[in-house]
């Protein structure tokens, strides 16, 4: 079965290569073909393994989770490296090659897709597999679909990123992949939903634990957003290019309805799911208020959807839609702070653990950053504030306060909590390196965010400053010059963060490689699988 | 009574439907009215469409990710109007599939860039921005002058745009590659046809300074020079005495 | 005619949206605070701290 799917994907890749012989689509076809062949080889490799016995059904199915974690860390280093590169490019624009693939405009979506979808997405898939099985007390219904979702998703990321290098993009921010990649993602995503639902249906607990709600909302709403925002007409089946079904105002509203809710349901809901499981688990205390978590769940699910239009203040979007977005953005603060507060109050009575355990501290600081950046988000959505902040680096600072401080830190915390469990080790290879990673990440985030606050506010003020004679005081290029020191500081902060991620990779690698702790190993824990683990 | 919710989650399917329902309402309420909005905002019967060469240029603009650093949306703020020109109107991007309003000004807004600088300036600036503006942090797009423009697919591009609602005629679609070549060469016998099909205001000249070659630079500069000039709605509004807030 | 449909849509958005918001907030809050649900929630909150061994058979 797995082989059949690989073959089908390979044929699709070949068809794309043939149909798009004159077009960049052909190169994308080869990427698909190679990926399918590689996975196919691994499958064949495991084909002659002994047939799986019934024993395996007594364990959770963790192999795809392990691979997901590793892929996630690989994407993290890749995406952050590109991110830091483009950060240096803004300070020193010649720090690149005289080649189209290496220019800022093409690297930037590589960075955003690499970190959001590559790093974040893989982490979400892996942790959701873990959380859903544990909280349902049930093994996944099958093995194939879990692998299909994980690897299919990575194929999507790979196609997307390789496409940007050769100039294939829809130009919709955070939805850059073209139509064929979008269709593929829909197939993968529906499988993901079905897998999740089937596992829930097998659960032994009557109540669905709240972390699953967040993961479900993440899966469902991302599907909705993705499908609507990517409605487009391809030029032909042999062309990578498509034109959005929407234009002008409608397109802008659809795009930022998508863009804002991608933040809400990809970068918030999913990671809240992570937090609601791993934080109590690691702290050894139940969540402070389960009731509050329910209220904030519905609050977030409901409010976020309305808030997208705050990306379009003072534009050609109708005024009432802007006002609506502003109102809901402010109301959003309530469920957001409820979640952050809930997380921090859970740690009451466990603060000594936070002091000693860098893994728990990752999660604690993530919750603090979550609270801060949601406050900042509501603040920036207020129309007059937005007049100053919009189009400036302040937005970039805000996004990274969320992305580095909240998303990445909660992910690293969860991964450090998860890796020893998955590989049956007593703890990480080196707690000291976890500590090092923590401080690098925290310092990097703070430097980054402070640099961008400064540059953003200066930029915004310079653009609107008038001199005594009533004319604009600064030319645009004056503001560019003023940004230079902050861009260097930002790139340096990013570098620290990247170094932290590399330290984390090394630590995880050593943890996996160190001999397993006999006491923790359960007998017969590694059932032979029909689907072998890919070599990556 | 609140066994309802309990049953709801017992049956995870219903739970899923509840999430979808709750989540979709907001988007629906915000977006749906915008599809009837065409009738309530400015209309411009004289609005021109992008020529094939300009579409090719627009696609290069998208390909190189220019939208990541340049906005095409002047907000209704005094300093923006003074810096960039009349604030952007909804009608001006009605044929933009997708819109390129942007979200970040690492570089200045270019919604009304057309005609502001000479072709020569643009060519030099795109080839290496620091030759023209020493402080610039914009990347150098040296390959634009090196690369020949691909024109064989332009008919298909216009056809796809027509499918999403841009009023291209059969004649425009059939002649797209020829029109693209003719627009970048005033001596081309087809140059008059381009003006006839796309309007007298269409720029017809060798944008990259070399009429003998049709490069990607031709297309991109042709696009940049038309920004803000497809519609005169803003100009009319300004003339009618509307003042930006 | 067409203007009317636009106004209508906007009207529905603005009025029904508000009631919907209020109803939903009340619904979620009441559900979360309903006393008889408390025990279930406590159990759920503690459940994540329990075993990791394997699925319940």
TrEMBL record, chain A:
Signal peptide location: 1-17
Binding-site residues for heme b 2; high-spin, renumbered to this chain: 398
Localization per record: Cell membrane
Name of the top EC class for this enzyme: translocase
Segments passing through the bilayer: 29-48, 69-90, 110-132, 144-167, 179-201, 213-237, 257-279, 288-307, 319-338, 359-382, 402-423, 432-453, 487-509
Reactions the enzyme catalyzes: 4 Fe(II)-[cytochrome c] + O2 + 8 H(+)(in) = 4 Fe(III)-[cytochrome c] + 2 H2O + 4 H(+)(out)
Binding, heme b 1; low-spin: 111, 400
Record EC number: 7.1.1.9
Family listed: Belongs to the heme-copper respiratory oxidase family.
Entry protein name: cytochrome-c oxidase
Automatic annotation (TrEMBL), chain B:
Coiled coil: none
GO function terms (MF aspect): electron transfer activity; heme binding; metal ion binding
PROSITE patterns: CYTC
Residue intervals passing through the bilayer: 12-35
Signal peptide: none
Keywords, ordered alphabetically: Heme, Iron, Membrane, Metal-binding, Transmembrane, Transmembrane helix
Gene3D superfamilies the UniProt entry points to: 6.10.250.2250, Cytochrome c-like domain
Domain of life: Bacteria
Residues covered by the Cytochrome c domain: 52-228
SUPFAM superfamilies xref list: Cytochrome c (SSF46626)
InterPro entries: Cyt_c-like_dom (IPR009056), Cyt_c-like_dom_sf (IPR036909), Cyt_c_oxidase_monohaem-su/FixO (IPR003468)
NCBIfam families tied to this protein: ccoO (TIGR00781), PRK14487.1 (NF011055)
Protein name: Cytochrome C oxidase, mono-heme subunit/FixO
Organism: Oceanibacterium hippocampi
TrEMBL record, chain C:
Keywords from the named record: Membrane, Transmembrane, Transmembrane helix
Source superkingdom: Bacteria
Keyword Membrane among UniProt keywords: yes
Xref: CDD domains: cbb3_Oxidase_CcoQ
The keyword Transmembrane helix belongs to this UniProt entry's keyword annotation: yes
Pfam family, one: FixQ
Membrane-spanning segments: 16-34
Designated name of the protein: Cbb3-type cytochrome oxidase component FixQ
